[in-house]
Amino acid sequence: MRSIDLDVRIIAATNKDLSKVVADGEFREDLYYRLQVIPLRLPSLRERKEDIPVLLEHFLVRFNRLLGKRFRGFSPEALELLNGYPWPGNIRELQNSVEYACNMETEEIVSTASLPPRIRQSQYQTDNSISVGVRLRQKMKEVEHQVLAEALEYFGTSSQDKEKVAKVLGVSRATMYRKLKEHNLV
Which PROSITE patterns does the protein's record reference (predicted)? Predict the structure, then answer.
């Protein structure tokens, strides 16, 4: 038996704060440092709404090719609805929604009627004052997420660092941890 030298690169992804998981003894420290070469943080789709039109176009071209169809685009109403939707399932949900619409639509322009029911019936439509309030609350959540993420980046992610962030933001430690959990920053 002889050994063979290998040059391997590993790409790993998680939605957990590995430094916290290591500190809690739930993840091997040596493995953490092997994986922590070039950390990348990919924001959720709701944090980068400007990508939605580009992704819609990409998926439309893709499903035109796969389904043998010739869609030219989305109606202005459909675009407004798709841009206003919060996309809790991120890009995968957006892709599935475009595929659904391409399978349902019979015209050259994808209309709101062809969008998945959860999007058509979402509370994020811009037709009334209730939806305006919902959009404002969503915007506040986005700003809160950004502030928390920047604070963690500045102060760090250890328990003591999070306590500093809570003090600077004027909230209790419990509120801080609740907010971090809400925003998947734990």
Answer: SIGMA54_INTERACT_3, SIGMA54_INTERACT_4
Whole-prediction pTM = 0.55
In single-letter form, the type of residue at position 105 comes to: E
Cβ proximity of 49 and 86 under 8 Å: no
- Locus of tokens 């909230």: 171
> Are the beta carbons of 87 and 45 closer than 8 angstroms?
yes
User: What CA–CA distances, in Å, run from 132 to 77, 112, 117, 136?
Assistant: 16, 19, 20, 6
Find where tokens 């953490």 sit: 32
pLDDT single digits (tens) 122-146: 755 545 544 555 566 677 778 888 8
Element (DSSP H or E) covering residue 73: strand 73-74
DSSP letter for each residue of 151-170: HHHHH-SSHHHHHHHHHHHT
